[in-house]
Design brief:
- This protein is α/β, with parallel strands linked by helices.
- It has a single domain, classed as TIM Barrel, CATH 3.20.20.10.
- Helix content is 38%, strand content 16%.
- The chain has eight helices and seven strands, in the order βαβαβαβαβαβαβαα.
- A seven-stranded parallel sheet has the order 1-2-3-4-5-6-7.
- Strand 3, helix 3 and strand 4 form a beta-alpha-beta unit.
- The radius of gyration is 16 Å and the shape is globular.
- It starts with a strand and ends in a 6-residue tail after the last helix.
């Protein structure tokens, strides 16, 4: 996945011309203003934290939501998707680093409650798990966090064989090689593709 947040549509289309077809964005508002409403050549996933009041807009704009982190949120997404007669793919975000500033499930009871309820949620399709590794150059710490997600995905597959867990989204520009070694099937690369960002 190419993370295109803060970069213009022209940069996205240049990447599409080079064969890149999957893009990640952090903010619903940026997706709305940057991308055309109809597109078939590439997909846009929401990878940033999704606020409850932005769910309706997000469901109508994106091809998937990769950062679902609560039972309340998945229920809201399901409701809005059904209104639009959509079945939207999602990833469940788990906080493997333990950092309170990061989003993601930390409570196993709530996490498994989502999976217990999943068969009744016809507007969403759980495709796997996502995490953001700890911001450190310590390979052992980062790989330990990624291994936690891999092991959780294995547990989910064993306990819920009817659900698909074919996507393990972990690893960014600074740590994607470690993530791949720990089983990542989707890395999120921004700076290494588009260069640095201008946040002004």
């Amino acid at each position: 996945m190419a993370v295109s947040k803060t970069h213009p549509l022209e940069a996205v289309l240049a990447a599409v011309d080079c064969g890149q077809l999957l893009f990640g964005e952090n903010r619903v508002q940026e997706i709305q203003t940057k991308f055309p409403e109809t597109r078939s050549a590439y997909q846009v996933h929401l990878i940033g934290h999704l606020q409850s009041n932005k769910v309706r807009k997000a469901v109508g704009l994106v091809d998937a939501i990769d950062s679902v982190d609560s039972l309340k949120l998945i229920r809201l997404i399901n409701t809005e998707a059904l209104k639009l007669e959509k079945r939207i793919p999602i990833l469940l975000e788990w906080n493997t680093s333990g950092e309170t500033a990061k989003s993601g499930f930390t409570d196993e009871r709530e996490f498994f409650a989502v999976l217990d309820e999943a068969p009744q949620l016809q507007g969403v399709e759980i495709r796997g798990l996502m995490t953001i590794g700890p911001l450190t150059d310590n390979e052992t710490m980062v790989r330990t966090a990624f291994a936690k997600l891999r092991n959780l995905a294995r547990t989910c597959s064993e306990r819920y064989p009817a659900l698909s867990f074919d996507t393990l989204s972990m690893g960014m520009s600074q740590d994607f090689l470690w993530a791949i070694k720990e089983g990542s099937t989707m890395v999120r690369i921004g700076t290494a593709i588009f260069g640095g960002r201008d946040y002004r």
